[in-house]
């Protein structure tokens, strides 16, 4: 009888977590948009639909993708065997139980107990290998996962005590932590993907200083949000977000190559990363009082930046790690365009039309559904 380790789905972390994260992206946004438009029963999960939506997008969807990526990347960095078999299945079940907990007839304390273990477990599993291999340069990733766990606790504590301000601080801080994590990972892999995808000669190594400044700036932004410095516009904080946007702009300028516009796996990553620049610039404008709704900056980051980078990254990583040609299907390329349209609709259309939310949610759900349609067989099947 074959071992569970021999089942392709449980052979490495990216397989189950990319499928779970993409599937949850479709379901969660569909439920949220249907509720907003009054198409679902009045019954709501513990804390209300807004609390559920706020919590589940960063701590359900984003953390699944982060787990899948890091559980695949860390073995490459350390040379140690990645999590697989029953331990991997167990970690997925911990994540799934946290998603299902919202449907259970439990109180806020029990919900918190079921939600909190996933990120500390992930940090423990990754840290074990990084410490054993003495990969000290990757320790900041463990710090960011630990801070994400703290943001989740803050969010759930605010929900349990019906404190909307603390809920909001925890979620917004988490989003900027995820953006910082994606900046670190993107700074490593996007130039490599461009160089390999266009068959360019390796360029001179970039200075590590801008990446370190970007990481510290993102951590500082998240910390200031978490302690309440983002409840009202503060003009002096605009300098921090202008610094972040300037560092993103410098990266985009350095990475640009006309050839990327011929390769969907490259232009999707490039345009998604550009949303991080847009979000930071929008936050600077809000701090200066020049942008009326902070939610526009938040959703530029969440929908365009995080959503776009997730879809582009999991499409590229899944092909590479299953030994397939780096040629996504036409359906997945359409998904890249749809998630871009979802971001544009949420940021540019919503201020002028109530239909903007529906269009954005529909484009988002279709984008991840197209990924599932094209990649479920790839992620659950053997490596070529």
Description:
This protein is mainly alpha-helical and 384 residues long. It has a single domain, classed as Cytochrome c oxidase-like, subunit I domain (Cytochrome C Oxidase, Chain A). Helices cover 73% and strands 0% of the residues. The protein contains 13 helices and no strands. The protein has helices spanning 14-36, 49-78, 85-100, 108-115, 118-132, 139-160, 164-197, 209-226, 238-255, 264-287, 294-321, 330-349, 355-380. It starts with 13 loop residues before the first helix and ends with a helix. The model has no long low-confidence stretch (mean pLDDT 93).
Q: Which range does the strand content fall in? A: under 5%
The geometry reads as globular
Main sheet summary: none
* CATH fold category name: Cytochrome C Oxidase, Chain A
State the secondary-structure class: mainly alpha
Q: What is the number of strand segments?
A: 0
Number of helices: 13
Provide mean pLDDT, rounded. 93
Give the N-terminus to C-terminus distance in angstroms. 23 Å
- List low-confidence stretches: none
Number of domains: 1
Rg calc? 20 Å
> Strand-and-helix sequence, N→C?
HHHHHHHHHHHHH
Q: Oligomer, anyone?
A: single chain
The portion of residues assigned to helices is over 70%
CATH architecture: Up-down Bundle
CATH class: Mainly Alpha
Organism: Pseudomonas kielensis
Transmembrane segments: 12-37, 57-74, 86-104, 110-127, 139-159, 171-190, 211-229, 235-253, 265-288, 300-319, 331-349, 355-375
Keywords: Membrane, Transmembrane, Transmembrane helix
Protein name: NnrS family protein
């Amino acid at each position: 009888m074959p071992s569970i380790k021999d089942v392709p789905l449980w052979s490495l972390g990216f397989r189950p977590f990319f499928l779970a994260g993409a599937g949850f992206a479709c379901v969660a946004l569909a439920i949220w948009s249907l509720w907003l438009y009054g198409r679902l029963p009045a019954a709501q999960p513990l804390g209300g639909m807004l609390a559920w939506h706020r919590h589940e997008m960063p701590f359900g969807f984003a953390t699944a993708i982060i787990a899948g990526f890091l559980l695949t990347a860390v073995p490459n960095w350390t040379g140690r065997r990645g999590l697989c078999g029953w331990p991997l299945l167990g970690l997925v079940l911990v994540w799934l139980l946290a998603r299902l907990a919202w449907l259970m007839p439990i109180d806020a304390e029990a919900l918190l107990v079921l939600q909190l273990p996933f990120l500390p477990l992930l940090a423990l599993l990754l840290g074990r290998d990084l410490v054993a291999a003495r990969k000290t340069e990757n320790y900041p990733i463990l710090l960011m996962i630990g801070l994400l766990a703290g943001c989740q606790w803050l969010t759930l504590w605010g929900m349990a005590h019906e404190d909307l301000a603390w809920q909001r601080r925890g979620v917004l801080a988490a989003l900027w932590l995820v953006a910082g994590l994606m900046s670190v990972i993107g700074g490593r892999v996007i130039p490599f993907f461009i160089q390999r995808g266009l068959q360019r000669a390796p360029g001179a190594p970039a200075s590590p200083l801008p990446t370190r400044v970007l990481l510290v700036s993102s951590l500082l932004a998240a910390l200031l949000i978490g302690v309440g410095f983002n409840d009202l516009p503060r003009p002096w904080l605009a300098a921090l977000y202008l610094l972040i946007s300037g560092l993103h702009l410098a990266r985009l300028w350095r990475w640009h190559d006309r050839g990327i516009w011929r390769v969907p796996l490259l232009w999707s990553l490039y345009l998604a990363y550009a949303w991080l620049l847009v979000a930071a610039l929008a936050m600077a404008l809000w701090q200066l009082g020049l942008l009326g709704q902070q939610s526009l900056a938040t959703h530029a980051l969440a929908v365009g930046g995080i959503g776009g980078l997730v879809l582009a990254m999991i499409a590229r990583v899944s092909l590479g790690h299953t030994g397939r040609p780096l040629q996504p299907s036409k359906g997945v390329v359409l998904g890249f365009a749809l998630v871009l349209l979802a971001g544009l609709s949420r940021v540019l259309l919503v201020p002028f039309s109530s239909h903007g939310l529906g269009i954005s949610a529909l484009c988002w759900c279709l984008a991840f559904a197209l990924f599932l349609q094209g990649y479920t067989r790839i992620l659950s099947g053997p490596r070529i």
